[in-house]
C-alpha cells in the first residue's frame, strides 16, 4: 500500500470510498464529498473520529478507532496524518490513501478543476514603473525589470528624472528590449522620449498641452492627461488634438491620493468613460498605494475591481515604498480575481486566498474539552502546541500550560522537564511558540510544524524545523499510543 497524491477517476462509479475526518471538518467534508459523489458517481461513507482537529491524528491512533463498512474499496485518510501507514494497513485489507491537506482541494484530488484554476483569465495590462531609472546601473535596471516581469508586469516603464538630461536612455531601453521586455518611457523631455522610441519604447507617458504637438512626429501610442487633475476641459482638448491626427492614445484622468481629491478623481474616471465609451483608459494606481499608510494588497484589489467594472484596461503601478513592494504580484492575482467576479457576476470571495495576507479567511477555535482530554491521556513527552485567537496551550505528559504569554508557558515547561531542553529542542519550541503567538495576535491559523499562511508572501517550511521535530520525537519515544503531533 502506498499513499497517492491524486485519485484516478476511471473506476470511480464502481467505488465505495470511506472518508476519515475529525469533528470540526465533518460538516464541510460532507458537503464537498456529496457534490463529488453526485458528479463522479462513487458511493461513500464518512467516519467522524472522536477528535476535534484532524491534523492531530496519527496512523496508530486511527488504527484503534477505524471501522470499515462492508463494500469499501478505498479508505481516504486526512493529508496531515503522518507516514508510514503500516499500522493502519495491518488492521484492514482495504487500500489506504492520504488525501490532500487542504480539504478544499478534494475536487482537484479527484481530477476536477477547482475554482482557483478558473482564475487564469485577465484583460488588464500591468505597467510597472522603475522609478529614478537614470540613477541605476544598467545591470541593476535589468535585474529589477526581469523581476517585475516575472512577478506579472506586462510592460516595464522607465521612469526618468524631472528636468530630463538622461543621455543613456536609448541604451537602457535597447537593453531591456534585447532582454525580451516591452518598454514604455515616462518623461516630458523631448530628447529622452525620441531616443527611447528609437530604441524600441512602445508607449509614452504622458502627453498634455505642453508636449502634444511633439507627439505628431513620434509615431508611438501616448497617454493623454489633463494639464491639472481637476481640469477635464484640457484633457478633452488633448484627446481631440491627438485623435484628429490619428495618434493612438490612452486616457488617464489621474488618480489622486486620499486628502487630495481622491473621491473626485474616481468620479472623473466615471465621467471620462461616459464621454469616451470606447476609449482605452489607464489608471496610475501607485498614486494611492504609495501615498496611503496601509498594506497595498487590498488597495490594489479594490482599484483593480473598479478598473474591471469600468473597462479600464491598463494600470500603472510602482514598488517604491516598503509596504507596496509586492504590488505587481498583488495586481497580477487581483486582475484575475476581479475578471472572474465581474464576468460571472459574483462577489470575489473564497476564490483567491493568496491576497489575504495579514489575517486568515478562517481560524479553527480550540476545543478546550478536547485539549483537557488530550492532556490527561498523554504518556509521552512530545510537546504539542495548540493555539487560536484566544490563548496558547503547551501540552505534554503530566503538563498542560495555558495562557497568552509564550515566555510564561515556556518557563513552566522548563521547570517541569529541565532534562528535555537541549539547545536544539529549546530553539524549536521557541520558534513554534513565536509562530503561535503571532497567529494569536493577528487572527491567523496556527498548526504546529506548518508555516503561517501569509498568502502570496508565504515562505515554504524550513527543513530545519522538520529535523528539530524529528530529533524531539527520537529523544522522547512514546510510551503510549495516544495521538502525537
TL;DR?
By secondary structure, this protein is an alpha/beta fold. It has helices at 26-40, 59-65, 86-89, 106-109, 138-151, 169-178, 190-199, 232-244, 262-275, 286-289, 296-310, 327-344, 368-377, 406-416, 423-442, 463-475, and strands at residues 16-21, 43-48, 74-77, 96-98, 125-130, 155-159, 183-186, 203-207, 222-224, 249-251, 280-284, 314-317, 384-387, 392-396, 399-403. The chain has 3 domains: 12-114, Rossmann fold (3-Layer(aba) Sandwich), CATH 3.40.50; 125-355, Dihydropteroate synthase-like (TIM Barrel, Alpha-Beta Barrel); 368-475, no CATH class.
Structural commentary:
The chain is an alpha/beta fold and 485 residues long. It has three domains: 103 residues, Rossmann fold, CATH 3.40.50; 231 residues, Dihydropteroate synthase-like (TIM Barrel, Alpha-Beta Barrel), CATH 3.20.20.20; 108 residues, no CATH class. The protein has 16 helices and 15 strands. The strands form three sheets. An eight-stranded parallel barrel has the order 5-6-7-8-9-10-11-12, surrounded by five helices. Helix 6 packs parallel to helix 7. The longest helix is centred in the C-terminal third of the chain and has 20 residues. The radius of gyration is 29 Å and the shape is elongated. It starts with 15 loop residues before the first strand and ends in a 10-residue tail after the last helix.
Amino acid at each position: 500500500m502506498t499513499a497517492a497524491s491524486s485519485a484516478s477517476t476511471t473506476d470511480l462509479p464502481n467505488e465505495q470510498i470511506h472518508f476519515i475526518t475529525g469533528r470540526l471538518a465533518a460538516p464541510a467534508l460532507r458537503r464537498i464529498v456529496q457534490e463529488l459523489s453526485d458528479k463522479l458517481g462513487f458511493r461513500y461513507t464518512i467516519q467522524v473520529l472522536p477528535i476535534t482537529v484532524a491534523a492531530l491524528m496519527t496512523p496508530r491512533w486511527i488504527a484503534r478507532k477505524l471501522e470499515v463498512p462492508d463494500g469499501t474499496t478505498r479508505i481516504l485518510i486526512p493529508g496531515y496524518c503522518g507516514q508510514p501507514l503500516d499500522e493502519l494497513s495491518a488492521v484492514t485489507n482495504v487500500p489506504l490513501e492520504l488525501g490532500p491537506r487542504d480539504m478544499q482541494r478534494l475536487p482537484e484530488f479527484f481530477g476536477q478543476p477547482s475554482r482557483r484554476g478558473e482564475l487564469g483569465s485577465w484583460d488588464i495590462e500591468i505597467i510597472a514603473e522603475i522609478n529614478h531609472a537614470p540613477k541605476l546601473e544598467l545591470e541593476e535596471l535589468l535585474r529589477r525589470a526581469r523581476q517585475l516581469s516575472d512577478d506579472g508586469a506586462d510592460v516595464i516603464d522607465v521612469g526618468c528624472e524631472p528636468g530630463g538630461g538622461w543621455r543613456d536612455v536609448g541604451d537602457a531601453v535597447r537593453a531591456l528590449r534585447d532582454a525580451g521586455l516591452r518598454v514604455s518611457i515616462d518623461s516630458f523631455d523631448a530628447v529622452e522620449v525620441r531616443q527611447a522610441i528609437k530604441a524600441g519604447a512602445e508607449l509614452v507617458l504622458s502627453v498634455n498641452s505642453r508636449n502634444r504637438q511633439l507627439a505628431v512626429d513620434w509615431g508611438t501610442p501616448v497617454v493623454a492627461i489633463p494639464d491639472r487633475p481637476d481640469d477635464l476641459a484640457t484633457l478633452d482638448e488633448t484627446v481631440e488634438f491627438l485623435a484628429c491626427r490619428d495618434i493612438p492614445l490612452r486616457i488617464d484622468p489621474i488618480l489622486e491620493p486620499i486628502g487630495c481629491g481622491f473621491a473626485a478623481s474616481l468620479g472623473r474616471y466615471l465621467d471620462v468613460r461616459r464621454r469616451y465609451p470606447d476609449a482605452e483608459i489607464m489608471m496610475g494606481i501607485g498614486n494611492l498605494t504609495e501615498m496611503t499608510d496601509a498594506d497595498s494588497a487590498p488597495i490594489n484589489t479594490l482599484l483593480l475591481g473598479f478598473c474591471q467594472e469600468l473597462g479600464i484596461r491598463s494600470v500603472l503601478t510602482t514598488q517604491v515604498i516598503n509596504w507596496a513592494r509586492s504590488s505587481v504580484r498583488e495586481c497580477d492575482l487581483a486582475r484575475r480575481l476581479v475578471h472572474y467576479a465581474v464576468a460571472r457576476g459574483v462577489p470575489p470571495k473564497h476564490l483567491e486566498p493568496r491576497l489575504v495576507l495579514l489575517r486568515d479567511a478562517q481560524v479553527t477555535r480550540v476545543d478546550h474539552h478536547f485539549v483537557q482530554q488530550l492532556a490527561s491521556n498523554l504518556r509521552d513527552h512530545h510537546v504539542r502546541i495548540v493555539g487560536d485567537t484566544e490563548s496558547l496551550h503547551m501540552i505534554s505528559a503530566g503538563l498542560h500550560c495555558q495562557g497568552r504569554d509564550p515566555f510564561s508557558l515556556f518557563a513552566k515547561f522548563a521547570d517541569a522537564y529541565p532534562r528535555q531542553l537541549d539547545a536544539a529542542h529549546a530553539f524549536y519550541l521557541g520558534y513554534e511558540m513565536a509562530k503561535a503567538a503571532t497567529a494569536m495576535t493577528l487572527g491567523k491559523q496556527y498548526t504546529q510544524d506548518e508555516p503561517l499562511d501569509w498568502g502570496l508572501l508565504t515562505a515554504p517550511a524550513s527543513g530545519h524545523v522538520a529535523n528539530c521535530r524529528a530529533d524531539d520525537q527520537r529523544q522522547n519515544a512514546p510510551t503510549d499510543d495516544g495521538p502525537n503531533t
